[in-house]
Design goal:
elongated
């Protein structure tokens, strides 16, 4: 029915699509984290976010989409390191949380 070459090409295509979507979501999370830190007058450390969780969940419209939770570090005084989190659900930022920190 399907040739082996077609199945391999399909798998490679799916991997590339997933990788592109993951990189886009990570960049969206990084920029939103930077913006949240700037808004709260704290320093965004390491200029990066790291993936904590990934799942399939239903969005507000009932459609399945990829739910990603990222963690990032920031400092309020230049010495301490605090953890923040950001949730990207599908193509939308669901939540940015800086938690409680000392000013």
């Amino acid at each position: 029915m399907f040739s082996d070459e077609f199945i391999i090409l399909l798998l490679i295509s799916l991997i590339v699509i997933y990788w592109y979507d993951a990189m886009r979501a990570k960049e969206v999370a990084r920029l939103a984290s930077l913006q949240a830190c700037n808004h709260s007058d704290v320093s965004f450390l390491d200029d990066t976010v790291s993936l904590k969780k990934i799942r399939l969940r239903r969005n507000v419209y009932g459609h399945l989409s990829i739910y990603r939770e990222y963690q990032f570090d920031f400092s309020s005084d230049g010495y301490s390191r605090h953890h923040g989190s950001i949730i990207v659900h599908g193509r939308q930022i669901s939540n940015v949380d800086l938690g409680v920190f000392r000013v």
